[in-house]
Amino acid sequence: MEIEKYQIDAHNHKLENEHERRFSFAASEHANVEEVIGKLIQFQIAIPSWALGTGGTRFGRFSGGGEPRSLEEKIEDVGLLHKLNQASGAISLHIPWDIPQDYEAIKSLAAHHSLRFDAMNSNTFQDQAGSAHSYKFGSLQHVDKAVRQQAIDHNIEVIRQGVALGSDALTVWLADGSCFPGQLNFRKAFQNTLESLQEIYAALPEQWKLFVEYKAFEPNFYSTTVGDWGQSLLYTTKLGPKAFTLVDLGHHLPNANIEQIVSLLLMEGKLGGFHFNDSKYGDDDLTAGSMKPYQLFLIFNELVEGMDAKGIDHATGLGWMIDASHNVKDPLEDLLQSVEAIMLSYTQALLVDRKALVIAQQENDVASCQEILQHAFRTDVRAIVQEARLRTGGAAQPLELYRELKVRENLIQARGLKTVATGL
Ligand SMILES: [Mn+2]
Q: Model confidence over 182-230: pLDDT tens digits?
């Protein structure tokens, strides 16, 4: 299914008066509103192909119906999101779940939906049918060079596929680690992983980036070989200038100060990108901003401050991706909510009075520092985000229009009720 321009126009027309009233108030409150809108229009968040189907837990998976059955249908789904919010103009693929059959056809389909290919994701956390070696005891860290070589070759193959699609980054997330004390020699596991990453790094094309994602625990429960930002930074520093650390919000131990991590990685020029999601307990993969919107704002506050300090372009300097997958919502509704939450936090961060904050920090005026940040956080910026969306042809209320147009019902009709997205 495709959403037509006249459908968006009719929806927007209905909400026009209310929006005008709310936006003119917001514009009167913020002198830099036009500058903010310009940045919002540029800002795009990549949708991961694996979030388009209903996720599951280790206890079960409840299919949602109308899920994409192929890479083409996944691109179609992201196209629907982008048509509605004009802020989801990229898709992040996962190999081997999304291997294209015809690269040119896939590229032109993506172009038809105004989508580009964001970072490619490799998979050495599962055994694939027909592969010679098992990753049960790790991949890039494995004690057996033959297993490591299989994992290295897979990553190089993913780079090759990404080149054919016009992507320019590889994300490596490893499940490598150990479940019990004594199982691994930490130093050897690190060395093996580093040597394997060096071989992958050597295969990167000139303009490519390598993102090394870390995770504190799970599926391994005693140690993880890229367990935190310090370990990731060690690898990326040793690898070279094309290697960066990737921060997934759900991959920290409870109460970690993620905004401080972000700030220091940016300072070192080693922050590569983000996987947005939210969590209450662990790697819950919940909708961005659904649990801790203040934390999301504080992260964006550091991002904006840190990127501006280094002259980094907000839209293109880092990789912005969602990594969530929920099991009780319509995945497309969930993604619309995540993108909206990210845009709201980014907007609030753009409204922080930086000059006043610098003065308050310099004077150790702690109460004022808090006031300045919370003033921005408590500002209702929904009309500003909506205005940016309207100016680029998006829907005033993407989720509302999604329901008005009965998108899910249409997808079920076209694809069937009992479809399972490839890879899930
Ligand atoms: Mn992730």
A: 999 999 999 999 999 999 999 999 999 999 999 999 999 999 999 999 9
pLDDT surpasses 80 at 421: no
Instruction: Tell how far the Cα of 198 is from the centroid of ligand 1, in angstroms.
Output: 21
User: Per-residue pLDDT averaged across 135-141, rounded?
Assistant: 98
**Phi and psi (nearest 5°) for 241?**
-70, -15
Q: Contacts by 293-298 with C-beta closer than 8 Å and gap 24+?
A: 293/341, 293/344, 293/345, 294/377, 295/258, 295/259, 296/249, 296/341, 296/342, 296/345, 297/345, 297/348, 297/349, 297/373, 297/376, 297/377, 298/259, 298/373
Least Cα distance to 48 among 251, 291, 236, 319 occurs for 319
Site of tokens 């992260």: 299
How far does the centroid of ligand 1 lie from the alpha carbon of residue 369, in Å?
32
Distance 86 CA to ligand 1 centre (A): 23
Residue 316 burial (10 A CB sphere; 0-12, 13-18, 19+) = exposed
Residue in 314, 375, 368 with CA at minimum distance from that of residue 348: 375
Q: How far is the CA of 33 from the centre of ligand 1 (A)?
A: 33
Distance 246 CA to ligand 1 centre (A): 8
| Nearest-angstrom CA–CA distance, 247 and 272 | 8
- Residue 118 C-alpha to ligand 1 middle, in angstroms? 14
Ligand 1 centroid from CA 6, angstroms = 37
CA angle 355, 361, 365 (to 5 degrees): 110
Which among 29, 23, 49 has a CA at the least distance from the CA of 324? 49
**Cα(355) to centroid(ligand 1), Å:** 34
- Residues 15, 292: Cα–Cα separation, whole Å: 29
Find the 288 Cα to ligand 1 centroid distance in Å. 13
- Average of per-residue pLDDT across 321-337: 94
Q: How far is the CA of 211 from the centre of ligand 1 (A)?
A: 11
381 CA to centre of ligand 1 in angstroms: 28
Taking the C-alpha atoms of residue 278 and residue 124, their distance in angstroms, rounded to an integer, is 24
Helices (H), 183-273: 186-202, 229-239, 258-267
From the list 115, 110, 200, the residue with the least C-alpha distance to 151 is 200
Q: What digits encode the pLDDT tens for the residues 143-185?
A: 999 999 999 999 999 999 999 999 999 999 999 999 999 999 9
Express each pLDDT in 382-411 by its tens digit.
999 999 999 999 999 999 999 999 999 999
